[in-house]
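Marked as duplicate of an earlier ticket. Keeping the data here for the record.
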Amino acid sequence: METDVIIVGAGASGLMCAIEAGKRGRRVMVIDHANKAGKKILMSGGGRCNFTNYSIDPDNFISSNPHFCKSALSRYTQWDFLALIARYRIPYHERDHGQLFCDSSAKDILNMLLAECADAGVAVQLNTRIERIEKLTDRFRLETDKGTVIAQSLVVATGGLSIPKMGATPLGYKIAQQFGMNVLPTRAGLVPFTLQPEDKDKFSPLSGIAVPCIVSNKQQRFNENILFTHRGLSGPAVLQISSYWQAGEEVVINLLPQFNLETELKSKRQQKLKNTLKTILDGYLPKRLVSCLLTDNVLNISLPDLSDRQIQQIANRLHHWTIKPNGTEGYRTAEVTVGGVDTDALSSKTMESKQVPGLYFIGEVVDVTGWLGGYNFQWAWSSAWCAGQYV
């Protein structure tokens, strides 16, 4: 059969692009190997879908070309998406750092996208496996297990490698490589850290403890909670820094970012406080965590008996706890994929391949990765909207 636009991938970016192309009167077919559209939308945000953020800035995105995302994000903003939400009267709420979630269910977002697709005359074909793609003179031919489709424009909206149990595959990268486009190395992002065996044995008994702190490496710092798990470290601050972390690198954790512990202890010592260090620190941090980081010999010293040097070392330990992760939990639990189709090969205005007319890449398959907090969905909406104006 013949159509105008084929979109591979029925996720956030694929459906959004289909809506925009359909509104322009283009005949659009979305195909996906899954049995349901928008599976990752449904599971995101704990089933509530963190669909965007009040504060979207290019600095919230990681890419080999940090300028690439600016055009799309400025042309289809969070306010544009919120206007769409308002039309469907979808109730939502704000959480920390401007993150926006559905009040009831992520289904509200998916149902809205599917309703918009239906209004725009978009055909969505699921359970379809692509067997071969080739470029004819001015058309693309896709051979699938449901037959052959020919179209003028081919949009790749296949997502990344994160959460393979939801059906993630490297198909999008393979299509790019088939057409001679560069694909930058990929790795798991927004993902928990695993610890070295010795650290894991030491810290796994703390599983379930959450602490507000600043986690940093040479590139970036995040001021949010960390969460101790059986396997290592998680929580928003760890997920955020993981996207900037390279194997073998250390991360520094400031467990008491709200004040200077050295100044605080010296002040209390001056006030002739007789408490042990353990008693004082237990007022600031979970007892089990303090016991893991400092020895009993030190913790049982009373404040007047601590030297300046000891106070300095204790403060340094808690303000600059340095740990070298063993790795991450990988794509199995990662929320996103860092890396992907090289932005140098794409137009930032249209998302079209510079060397293959009619071939477009949008969403997570592209080397643009957002922070935790609705940024990756906004990139999906923005990049898809842009491509939808041209396909």
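See parent ticket for discussion. The chain has a mean pLDDT of 96.
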